[in-house]
Amino acid sequence: MAWHTKTALITASLLALGACGDSKVFNSWTQEAGAFIDEGQFGNPTRQNTLVQTGQRSFVIDLNNRFAHDVPPMVNFAFDSARLDEEAKAILRKQASWIKQFPEVRFRVYGHTDLVGTEAYNKRLGLRRARAVVSYLVRQGISRSRLEAVASFGETQPLIVTQKRERKNRRTVTEVSGLVKKHPANLDGKYAELIYREYVQSATEKPNTGTGALQNSGN
Fold first, then answer.
1. Bigger pLDDT: 18 or 106?
2. How much of the chain exceeds pLDDT 90, in percent?
3. CA distance linking residue 104 with residue 185, whole number of Å
4. Does residue 19 lie within any of the structural domains?
5. Under 8 Å CB-to-CB from 26, ≥6 apart: which residues?
6. Domain total of the chain
7. How large is the average pLDDT for residues 70-93?
8. Which of 44, 77, 116, 199 could bridge 170 with an S-S bond, Cβ 3.0-4.6 Å?
9. pLDDT (tens digit per residue) in 142-200
10. How many angstroms separate the CA atoms of 154 and 123, rounded?
11. Which has the closest alpha carbon to 110: 28, 19, 58, 39?
């Protein structure tokens, strides 16, 4: 088979694959390098680099895993809505109670949508949902400065891939994002102590003040 014939067949195959595949993937061929990988969230790779350079990345992963284990990190929304229902508020109160235990830690809220609607609209809707969660956490006594940022992935990260309405995709996710800058407790080698704070405190022997002995002597 002639070389130019092989080339033509390969080109035709790639075009056919692009036509039947995910258009968002193959659109990346016409974009700048890295555009598809980054998905427009330039701040996330930058944040990861900062965490690695400051030695916080392992700490953030460990504490975030514990956060997700102790309390539900996600809340869900009705279709085309950023309103928090009673179930969502109950979950966020649990999140706020947990967050208050760690005043040295910052959090980030990500908004998501299902795949119904345009990508641009869903991007805005995801942001509205994230902001609704942040506002509610602030009303529970969490400093807004500790809620590092709100971000929206819109429809780009569905839990269930379907073009239909899907409540599980209409969600926000709260995650540990790093440490509060210049907090006095954020010293080198103290990350494990922050993560296991109450365990350390519960295992620490309290000094005997002698109160019990005095009370016994009066009986």
1. 106
2. 45
3. 7
4. no
5. 17, 18
6. 1
7. 97
8. 77
9. 999 999 778 899 999 999 999 999 999 999 999 998 887 654 454 444 555 555 555 55
10. 4
11. 39
Distances (CA, A) of 1 to 4, 11, 66: 9, 15, 60
Give the CATH number for residue 199. Answer: 3.30.1330.60
Residue that has been written with the tokens 């790779």 in this structure: 45
Domain that holds residue 174: 38-203
Distance CA 62, CA 66 (A): 6
Q: What is the pLDDT of residue 150?
A: 87
Spatial distance between the Cα atoms of 99 and 136, rounded to a whole number of angstroms: 13
Q: What's the count of helices (H) and strands (E) in the chain, helices before strands?
A: 10, 4
For residues 113 and 91, give the distance between their C-alpha atoms in angstroms, rounded to a whole number. Answer: 19
Classify 116 as helix, strand or coil.
Answer: coil
Nearest-CA neighbor of 77 among 190, 186, 194, 166? 166
> Do the domain assignments include residue 25?
no
The verdict on residue 99 lying in a domain is: yes
Q: How confident is the model at residue 40 (pLDDT cuts 50, 70, 90)?
A: very low
